[in-house]
Design brief:
This protein is α/β, with parallel strands linked by helices. It has 2 domains: 447 residues, Up-down Bundle (Amino acid/polyamine transporter I), CATH 1.20.1740; 180 residues, no CATH class. It has a 5-stranded mixed sheet. Strand 5, helix 20 and strand 6 form a beta-alpha-beta unit. The longest helix has 32 residues. It is elongated.
């Protein structure tokens, strides 16, 4: 029995490691396709001599060691929110510690901008990854160069077209394919290292310091290309909830890191051999002629997997933002009834597809896109470091003698890469910044409007719950024979609490027709990824006489990574006899307020913000539809004097 249990445990751990290889490391695992190539053949190419090659390889070796191994795996992945990671997990952790500002800046604003930069990463990753893989056919024959763009666009269209079908079954193939990919990286790089073992001197950090000393400020241009080797770092942290820190650590240390280093060093050895490199593509130059097309096909599959991981990450990021009230409620489709995290968001999918295709048509080559790639990554790295600093100080209470040296070192590293990537701002680096700013304006405006709406609702005159209870008893013979669910933006727990504005509006439009059965339903998203079923519902009975009527308040608690469904909530409560309503959930009338903002003559910036807010409010998915119901049962509320 013990042997069986141990075997099951080992098999489960191995499955997690394989899964992590397929999902977590797709982006960083395909960086050898373009990172070293851009350093020596990009916008600011280096001379191919031994000092430069060893210096760059040393910088790559220690960048992966410091940024990925030390910063993310050893430090930041300790900051999990009930097992979940990602920038919104950091936000939730800090909200628990009551911290509202970081270095004088709004915590929500800082984290929000970091999240929006990840969208910029999500736009560029599929484009550059697939394009860099398909460029292999150009190395095979220059005559095939004209087919690179059409093939890339065709693959991108196919990739985004299958998203609506879900990736559960395809995802099972990700791990084995990426294992083959990392083994091939080793097999391609190892022969060149054996031919030119001098490249192993790059492991010594002195090579990196010597390079920095010789090139001084020009090192920042080099760092802008080396930053490409750490794209996908945030995925290590964001996907921690799907696997765990231990499996990600084993996958990184056991296969990914050695494979990347061996391949980079193999490319470096090839550069030092003074051989002619076809198409200036150091990665494909490692492949023997007989295996060339096989490597191209495998690289294409690996980049599709990397793109899929980023697309799924953007879906997850959007879903969390919607749950936290930072993004308009848009249609979210669950593609797997058994796995909660597998979702598809049509609007985001179309936006990403169009953006990726436009980028390919504008830049034409992976080298052109490389300039646009690093800013989003390095910008998010800085924000993650700053937020993590706040957690160690305010939540974990680390002592200053630990905090000061650790974070001074990390900030210097992050700023060095950020400054380097910013030097390519006008070569394409502005793209993720523009994407980030636009999304930041949208998200911050939505969050501001949500608070504004809640404040306006509270300020409106209306009935108290206690008064409604009295009125229901007084008119018990003339009650509306309906069971009505009234969505509430806040929990209702006292008789003095005013009824939700949706019910007020219902009375205004249809007269004082009091329903016989009323459920006030508030869905609260906690600062944790998931809410256990034991704390799912808080129920308050204000009136519980089946002959007179019932008025019940339900607070349904969910984590920000969970998707509530109103039909399921009502059916579950009824089946558990927590609410006694003698009607089928399908026949319940659901009322939800939809705010409309009327612009008044004011400050021009405030007026523009209100116009944007009103536009989003009108075209956002109605709450009833977002929570699993149709679009019919809603009440429109017009809020003025904002």
């Amino acid at each position: 029995m013990n042997l069986k249990n141990n075997l099951t445990k080992k098999t489960f751990s191995l499955a997690l490691i394989v899964g992590a290889l397929g999902i977590v490391f797709g982006d960083i695992g395909t960086s050898p396709l373009y990172a070293l190539k851009e350093t020596f053949f990009g916008l600011h190419p280096l001379v191919r001599n031994q000092e430069n090659v060893l210096g760059v390889l040393s910088l790559i070796f220690w960048t992966l060691m410091i940024v990925v191994t030390v910063k993310y795996i050893f430090l930041i992945m300790r900051a999990d929110n009930n097992g979940e990671g990602g920038i919104f997990a950091l936000l939730s952790l800090l909200r628990q510690s009551k911290v509202k500002k970081i270095f004088g800046l709004s915590l929500t604003a800082v984290v929000l901008f970091g999240a929006t930069l990840l969208y910029g990463d999500g736009v560029i990753t599929p484009a550059i990854s697939v394009l860099s893989a398909v460029e292999g056919i150009e190395v095979l024959s220059p005559n095939l160069a004209k087919y690179v763009i059409p093939i890339t666009i065709a693959i991108l269209i196919a990739l985004f077209s299958i998203q609506k079908k879900g990736t559960g079954k395809v995802g099972k193939l990700f791990g084995p394919v990426m294992i083959i990919w990392f083994i091939v990286l080793i097999l391609l790089g190892l022969p060149e290292i054996i031919k030119y073992p001098q490249v192993l001197q790059a492991i010594n950090p002195i090579s990196a310091f010597r390079f920095i000393y010789q090139h001084t400020w020009y090192t920042f241009f080099v760092l802008s290309s080396i930053a490409l080797c750490i794209t996908g770092c945030e995925a290590l942290y964001a996907d921690m909830g799907h696997f765990n820190r231990r499996s990600i650590t084993w996958a990184w240390a056991g296969l990914v890191y050695p494979a990347l280093i061996i391949n980079y060093f193999g490319q470096g050895a090839l550069l030092l051999s003074n051989e002619t490199i076809a198409g200036n593509n150091t990665f494909y130059a490692l492949a023997p002629q007989w295996a060339f097309m096989g490597v191209v096909i495998l690289a294409t599959a690996a980049t599709i997997i990397a793109s899929q991981a980023l697309i799924a990450g953007v879906y997850s990021l959007t879903s969390q933002a919607v749950s936290l009230g930072l993004f308009p409620k848009i249609r979210i489709v669950h593609t797997n009834s058994e796995v909660e995290g597998q979702i598809y968001i049509p609007f985001i999918n179309v936006a990403l597809a169009i953006s990726c295709i436009i980028l390919v048509l504008i830049f034409h080559t992976s080298g052109g896109l490389a300039a646009a790639y690093g800013i989003a990554v390095t910008g998010t790295m800085i924000i993650t470091t700053l937020v993590f600093y706040s957690i160690t100080r305010h939540l974990w209470r680390w002592s200053w003698w630990i905090i000061a040296p650790v974070f001074t070192f990390l900030v210097i590293i992050d700023l060095s890469f950020f400054v380097g990537t910013m030097l390519k701002f006008w070569q394409g680096g502005f793209i993720p910044i523009i994407v980030g700013i636009l999304l930041f304006v949208i998200m911050s405006t939505w969050d501001w409007g949500r608070i504004l709406s809640h404040t306006a609702h509270l300020a409106l005159p209306g009935l108290s719950v206690g008064k409604l209870v009295e009125m229901q008893a007084e008119h018990k013979n003339n009650l509306l024979k309906r069971s009505v669910v009234v969505m509430s933006s806040r929990p209702i727990i006292n008789n003095d609490d005013r009824i939700p504005v949706a019910l007020d509006s219902f009375f205004s439009k249809w007269g004082l027709s009091i329903p016989k059965h009323i459920v006030f339903l508030n869905i609260t998203f906690l600062n944790s990824p998931r809410a256990e079923k034991t704390i799912r519902y808080n129920i308050t009975n204000f009136q519980n006489d089946i002959n007179v009527g019932t008025i019940i308040s339900v607070q349904a608690n969910y984590g920000y990574m969970q998707m509530p469904d109103i039909r399921y909530i009502l059916s579950e409560l009824k089946s558990q006899n927590k609410i006694k309503i003698p009607s089928d959930p399908e026949k319940w009338l659901v009322l939800v307020a939809m705010d409309r903002f009327v612009v008044r003559p004011r400050n021009i910036l405030r007026r523009m913000r209100i116009i944007l807010l009103d536009y989003m409010w009108r075209y956002a998915k109605p709450m009833t539809s977002y929570y699993g119901l149709g679009d019919d049962n809603k009440v429109d509320i017009e809020i003025i004097n904002i």
